[in-house]
């Protein structure tokens, strides 16, 4: 029997330490909408957050993020996430090991339940790509910050690095009966210098004809490509915690039954 997997795509939450910040209040509103809409859904939707969960990668911001996501976890909704440039350092323009350790501990450990993430050192390179099978869908999370570690200033650029792309190719070489979803933060084919994924061409080559859905964020601009370079559906999320217009937040849902993605676009009142 074919399983229907529903994905809710969020990105670029930019959560702050202070409770009163607009992004924090708006995420609480979005979480409440999700819980109300999918209250009786079985199985529950998978929430995929494609980076920049917090604004500067500080421990206090991650702690506030955990508070805001707690109702989704309590309701049993699976949450998957990957790091963005803002998760890894101040203003998203520097990468700090301490920020990556906090992402590893709080997001990968406390939110996603990945074992062995409580270490005080940065283990992210060995953890990614993340692979989860939910229903009959295979989710692959990428760390598009990994290839930039060691650069003091990077203009919000990203890179996966050769090792991670090799691992991804090996994962995709293993046949999977259900759909495959890849999620990352940086734009996988945009060439803007200040926001680019440096090894985007290698990534797109690895995914061609092997992936059903690609999800990402970073530019705060929502867009949909269907199909794109041998991939059925490619979705860029905007900044989920920023209204798209008319005081409404945008949220895309991807419903997968077998390998056929169906994309719906919802607008949530402020």
Describe the structure.
The protein is an alpha/beta fold and 270 residues long. It has a single domain, classed as Purple Acid Phosphatase, chain A, domain 2, CATH 3.60.21.10. It has six helices and eleven strands. The protein has helices spanning 22-37, 59-74, 97-111, 124-127, 162-172, 200-207, and strands spanning 4-10, 46-50, 79-82, 130-134, 137-141, 180-183, 213-216, 223-225, 233-236, 248-257, 260-269. A six-stranded mixed sheet has the order 4-5-6-7-9-8, with no helix packed on it. A five-stranded mixed sheet has the order 3-2-1-10-11. The radius of gyration is 17 Å and the shape is globular. The mean pLDDT is 93.
Short key terms for the protein model shown above:
six-stranded mixed β-sheet; globular; 270 residues; 26% helix; single chain; five-stranded mixed β-sheet; Purple Acid Phosphatase, chain A, domain 2; alpha/beta
CATH superfamily: Metallo-dependent phosphatases
Portion of residues within helices: 25-40%
> Over the alpha carbons, how many angstroms does the gyration radius reach?
17 Å
Largest sheet: 6 strands, mixed
Order of helices and strands: EHEHEHHEEHEHEEEEE
The CATH C-level class name: Alpha Beta
Q: In terms of per-residue confidence, which ranges show pLDDT below 50 for 5 or more consecutive residues? A: none
What strand line-up does the widest sheet have?
A: 4-5-6-7-9-8
- Give the CATH topology: Purple Acid Phosphatase, chain A, domain 2
Average pLDDT, all residues: 93
Task: Give the overall shape.
Answer: globular
Q: How many runs of DSSP E, i.e. beta strands? A: 11
Number of domains: 1
- Number of helices in the DSSP assignment: 6
Supply the helix-strand structural class: alpha/beta
CATH architecture: 4-Layer Sandwich
C-alpha termini separation: 39 Å
